[in-house]
Amino acid sequence: MITLAGALQAEVTKFIMLANAKLHTPIRAGKTGKIIMEKYSMSRKVAISLFIMHPFFVTQAEIETEFLPPSQIKPPTSISAAAQEEFNKRIKLQIQNQKREKEQRPDPESVLSIQQIPVRMGNFTSLPNVAEKLLHLPDTAFTTKSPSVNIADISKTALRECELLKSLPIGGELKDSVTGNGKFFYCNSIGVVSLEESLLYSNRHVDTVNTLAVNAKIIIGGIRRGAIVSRIRNESGDDGVTRIQWRSGEKNMVIRAQGFDDKIAQHVEHIVATFPD
After folding, report:
1. Strand 119-122 to 251-258 pairing
2. CA angle at residue 40 from 38 to 46, to 5 degrees?
3. Is residue 207 a contact partner of residue 247, using CB atoms and an 8 Å limit?
4. Pick the residue with more confidence: 83 or 3?
5. Rounded CA separation 14/11 (Å)
6. Is residue 1 in some structural domain?
7. What are the CA-CA distances from residue 149 to residues 125, 162, 240, 249 (Å)?
8. Residue 21: partners with Cβ closer than 8 Å, 6 or more residues away
9. What pLDDT does 244 receive?
10. What does R_g of the chain's alpha carbons equal in angstroms?
11. What CA–CA distance (Å, rounded) separates 133 from 119?
12. Residue 227 lies in a domain
């Protein structure tokens, strides 16, 4: 049993890898489960305003909220010596590339808003299209293993006003679990939003995300912390994606929202401001 359906693996992986490397038309689910475009009937009772302006209260973290420096990224202890050597080669190359990119960016301490991140061009499958294809897959296409991380309580966040389209396992399979959970929402104010929550480190799994990739300091759950932010316009159309990644204790958190303009940036900031650790 696979974590994501084989037919979608390449497409979803491409979308995620492109968003991770550098750093639209709204859709929703109809009664049949089919994704339809923005011109949906307003008679359905989901036209709820998503965002209430939340005051930004900065508090002190009780858990780890910053990614590890690259010097502390070590291979999983349970893998073979050959696999550890290959891991070290890959992380060494990754760090070299990240250092070059870091030299070309402003100091993250001076980037306090998503709107300060420049929009760049990219080529990827749009977030609405990914959500649409996942919605049409049967539950048997996904593993039945549970996530190995504690999943956030959406009722305590701004996403509570959105319609949950799909929840599914993501990441790698461990012995009795998977490393994460993904959700797709339709939010009336901005369209499709995805949320990923995945395990950062264990004796069988290590995420190589580190402080070199951090390019902003954003208030998330009342705590200003290092974040990896990107705004990408699709080369193949007028759609795009705004993405933010941060650490919440043992978890790697990623939110993507369709669109790349300043309005989307503001909405994403309001979403993450409500996410408790």
Report:
1. unpaired
2. 100
3. no
4. 83
5. 5
6. no
7. 27, 23, 29, 10
8. none
9. 98
10. 18
11. 27
12. yes
Measured between alpha carbons, how far is 224 from 247 in angstroms, rounded to an integer?
11
In a domain, 268, yes or no: yes
Amino acid identity for residue 266 in this structure:
Q
Place of tokens 């933010």: 244
pTM of structure:
0.78
- Residues 167, 182: contact at Cβ < 8 Å? yes
Q: Is residue 267 within a helix (H) or strand (E), and if so which, with residue range?
A: helix 262-273
Range of the domain at 114: 6-273
CA–CA separation, 154 vs 122, rounded Å? 30
Q: Cα-flanking dihedrals φ and ψ of residue 240, to 5°?
A: -175, -170
- Per residue in 206-254, pLDDT (tens digit) is 999 999 999 999 999 999 999 999 999 999 878 999 999 999 999 999 9
pLDDT at 58: 52
| Mean pLDDT calculated for residue range 83-88 | 94
* CA–CA dist 50, 69 (Å, integer): 36
Query: Could you tell me the pLDDT band of residue 112, with boundaries at 50, 70 and 90?
Result: very high
What mean pLDDT value characterizes the chain? 81
Q: How many domains does the chain have?
A: 1
Q: Determine which of 43-52, 100-109, 215-224 has the lowest per-residue pLDDT on average.
A: 43-52
> Which strand (E) or helix (H) includes residue 225?
strand 223-234
